[in-house]
Design a protein that fits this description.
Layout: E1 2-7, H1 11-17, H2 20-27, E2 32-37, E3 50-51, E4 61-62, H3 64-75, E5 82-91, H4 94-103, E6 106-111, H5 119-125, E7 128-131, H6 141-152, E8 188-189, E9 192-193, H7 203-212
Parallel strand pairs: 1-2, 1-6, 5-6, 5-7
Antiparallel strand pairs: 3-4, 8-9
The chain binds S-adenosylmethionine.
């Protein structure tokens, strides 16, 4: 899966995507993540990418020219859908992340800033709008990283075992419910004991306990 992220803050992504499972997945060629600095596409001599909104109101809006040029340039490298990160989009869920992974080989993630982007870019070039929840972030970069992380877990090989993502909360193993509580050593910590059944070695009883304790 190839992800291309258009943002005015490409460095924001590098630390997160350069560590742990996402880093290994890139080294193994399972995913590719490319960032594109929107300012480089601005024809303004100060590389400006925002302006005041028609109709007035607080805040600035991202202007269409740099967005248009960036998206059309990146579309030459990535044939997947253009996904705009916005609180007004369809909510990201386990099912939507899985569908995005299964139905696309690539996607372009567009990160808004300020009060968002000029509507004409949404009408002309955006294929899908995704929200990571009913709250407002200062920018789309965190949201894009959430999409990359959640979608990558469904790419074969990223988690090692092909079906691992289905063994977590919301997955098939739990019928869409949330996972049971976990415990590790020591068996007693600050006077609190690990449930006896989990130490019994009786796998059938352990599984029953776990399924009873789904949330
Ligand atoms: N004025 C916009 C509104 O009320 O819907 C919010 C703009 S927000 C301050 C700036 C940018 O952050 C948005 O354009 C979007 O790219 C991103 N963003 C904020 N909250 C988000 C969310 N819940 N999911 C996805 N992206 C979000």
């Amino acid at each position: 899966m190839r992800f291309d992220v258009i943002t005015i803050f490409p460095e924001m992504l590098s630390s997160y995507i350069g560590e742990s499972i996402l880093s290994r997945a890139q080294k193994e060629g399972l995913i590719e993540i490319h960032t594109h600095d929107l300012r480089k596409y601005s024809k303004d001599r100060h590389q400006k990418v925002d302006d005041t909104p028609y109709g007035g109101g607080a805040g600035m809006l991202m202007t269409p020219q740099p967005l248009y040029d960036a998206i059309t340039a990146v579309k030459k490298l990535n044939k997947g859908p253009v996904v705009f990160m916005t609180p007004q989009g369809q909510k990201l869920t386990h099912t939507r992340a899985k569908r995005l992974a299964r139905t696309n080989d690539s996607m372009i993630l567009l990160c808004g800033r300020y009060e968002g982007i000029d509507q004409r870019i949404r009408d002309m070039l955006v294929d899908m709008e995704v929200s990571i929840g009913d709250f407002v972030l200062t920018g789309g970069e965190l949201a894009a990283m959430v999409v990359i992380d959640a979608v990558s877990r469904f790419i074969p090989g990223v988690l090692g075992d092909m079906d691992s993502a289905e063994d977590d909360s919301f997955g098939r193993r739990f019928g869409g419910k949330k996972e049971y509580p976990h415990y590790t050593k020591p068996a007693i910590f600050k006077g609190m004991q690990v449930p006896e059944v989990l130490r019994s070695g009786n796998h059938a009883e352990i599984e029953k306990w776990r399924m009873r304790n789904l949330k």
